[in-house]
Amino acid sequence: MYHSPTNDILIFATDLWLLAQNNCWKPYLIVIIEPFPTLFWYHEPGAAEDIEDNLIQLGTAAMKTENLRKKQAGYKIRLLKWMQEIRQLCTDNAPRSMVQNALKELEKQFDKVQFLQDELEEGLSLDDLKKEIDEFRTLEQEILEIRSIAEDFIEEMTDGKKAEIVKNGSDVNASVRLPRHELPKFHGDVLEFTAFWEQFEDCIHTRRDISDSAKFSYLRSSLSGSGFAVINGLSLTAANYLAAIEILKNRFGRKDVVIQNHIRKLLEVEPCVKTFAENLQVLHDELNLHVRALGALGKDLNSSRITAAEILMELFKLKLPITICKKWEEEVFTDEAKSSDLDLFFSFLLKWVWIEQSVVKTQTLGQPRLTKAMKTTATAESVTTTTALKAKIEPRLNSCVVCNGEHTIFQCDQFLRATPAERWSLCSKRGLCFHCLYKGHLENRCPRRKPCGEAGCSL
Questions:
Q1: Short name of one Pfam family for this protein (predicted)?
Q2: Could you say which DSSP state residue 10 is in?
């Protein structure tokens, strides 16, 4: 134990020894530790530079340790997330490849954590080092446990000890390996939804060994286009899985909408204009496809199950403006029987006739009414103005727009003697079409322009 010169501050030998061990002590250097942050230095002459270097090294080491801890904490968070992911995949009987890929990511994150741990331990004191090693040992044991779970799962899947599909909770012979197949895809076509849902229902929806959150993940991965857009706002939770199915069925699985789309496809089939076998085959396949599909939906065209009203309704909707067609769909959305009711359709159409007439009458109210004299004056002004405008923009039949001679531009000596560049300038100044040499339109809208008959020419 060392007494300071003032005899009121004590330094224990153990503290001095610790400072010497951490390379913070020099000969004749004494650090006085007291309740107040005051440092007293005793050293030989010329040792001040060494003292300053030691203080800088001490601060740099502390900062490096703090940075290493922060960086390692981020990697540990990622590591724990991958551990949870692997445990969930094994619980849900996910495909073997998914577990293998997750295990590889876990190994990458653990390597990064271990590298930082080695750097961190180099700058710690003995007491801190022991505590740090114990904490890291706990993490290593958790990693070993999750590795064992994943490796056992992969081995069982490889050896065929687990059945790939357990339908309706029944046991399947574990020695039988069922064929694997890709999940169906749906891009938003109404006519493809029924087939998609039947496949997805058999592969994923009816399995009881998969959680609803995992089923929802499979469902999202099977959708694209407008099919994905309708459920994109739902978060990936078990509670939203059944809600997503209901949304998809209401949007794409309504039977009346599917029937309407098949009828419309039949009405929109392109006519076959050539008698080649290939063209006739395409026509046959397209017609037969939609007819058979309608039969499967209970609308056999060879019986009275599909009515003329259903076919005519689709034909009538093709003739409507898009805004009125949307209003009609809103009208029949809640009742499938109304969608082919011709009387209801004609009543709906007549109602919109009255609405449009009422709107037009409302717009004309408040406008000044013209007297007979005002109408006569307006008509005369209109005729005069139109005649003058026509005379202004249309040249005389045999008047040259270049020299104002009594001939057409095609017979004008001045125009014919001009070079191509001069002709271009004359046409540009007088607002002539570069193709037909008449006024009133541009070259790209010339009504007299015809494609060149020469092969390979784009003019």
A1: DUF1759
A2: E
- The tally of domains found in the chain comes to 5
Consecutive H or E run containing 54: helix 48-91
Position 38 in a domain: yes
CA 402 – CA 411 distance, rounded (Å): 11
Could you tell me which residues come within 8 angstroms of residue 15 by beta carbon, excluding any fewer than 6 positions away?
A: 33
Question: Mean pLDDT over residues 265-292, rounded?
Answer: 74
By CB neighbour count within 10 A (0-12 exposed, 13-18 middle, 19+ buried), where does 106 fall? Answer: buried
Question: Quick one: pLDDT at residue 459?
Answer: 52
Q: What percentage of the chain exceeds 70 in pLDDT? A: 67
Q: Are residues 419 and 357 in the same domain?
A: no
Average pLDDT of the chain?
Answer: 71
Structure tokens at 100: 């293998």
Q: Are residues 40 and 69 in the same domain?
A: no
Tell me which amino acid residue 80 is.
L
Q: Is the pLDDT of residue 427 over 70?
A: yes
One domain for residues 33 and 78: no
Do 68 and 134 lie in a common domain?
A: yes
Q: Assess whether pLDDT exceeds 50 at residue 313.
A: yes
pTM over 0.85: no
pLDDT at 317: 76
- Amino acid of residue 305: R
d(CA 39, CA 37): 7
Q: What's 137's domain CATH number?
A: 1.20.58
Residues 137, 215 share a domain: no
Query: Do residue 76 and residue 150 come from a single domain?
Result: yes
Q: Which domain holds residue 427?
A: 397-448
- How long, in residues, is the chain? 459
Residues 6+ away with beta carbon under 8 Å from 304 = none
